[in-house]
Write a structure and sequence with these properties.
Length: 156
């Protein structure tokens, strides 16, 4: 008799479904700017491999699309989160991490306009009908952070 498959993880189960997103993004990053732009988007999130893969596809008002691909490494007990944008079709470098006490922290290395940056994603304020995500960059190995993009999600 086959055994029942247990979930690999339930970390991103909250995200499965359809959402509206209120985006708030710095117009100019790493320049000391506090000039923000705001725009709405929608996303549809799915889970695969018993929770071990989480994918969401964003649709922005410009027609641009983006996709987050989250892969759970069972042995390392951590997530790798990748972003791909419809403008170039390239998978960006991952941020890695996990959830503690209902909040997620993920870190990675990238560059912005030729400047190496440490990247931080935070998932907070997670409920059945809402969640908050934010991205921040650091140019001093995580001593200070500039939050440059936030998303407030509301379930449809």
């Amino acid at each position: 008799m086959p055994s029942k498959l247990e979930p690999m993880t339930t970390d991103f189960d909250f995200l499965v479904g359809r959402w509206t997103i209120r985006n708030r993004r710095l117009k100019s990053r790493l320049t000391g700017s506090d000039d923000w732009e705001e725009f709405d988007a929608t996303t549809v999130a799915r889970s695969h491999f018993n929770g071990g893969i989480s994918i969401d596809e964003h649709t922005f008002p410009t027609g641009r699309r983006g996709m987050s691909v989250r892969l759970y490494d069972v042995a390392a007990r951590e997530w790798a989160i990748y972003w791909v944008d419809s403008r170039d079709g390239r998978l960006g470098p991952p941020v890695r991490g996990g959830f503690t006490d209902g909040a997620g922290e993920f870190y990675g290395d990238d560059e912005h306009d030729g400047t190496p940056v440490r990247v931080r994603f935070l998932w907070t304020d997670i409920t059945d009908t809402s969640a908050h995500w934010e991205q921040a960059f650091s140019t001093d190995a995580g001593q200070t952070w500039e939050t440059n993009w936030t998303m407030d999600l509301t379930r449809l």
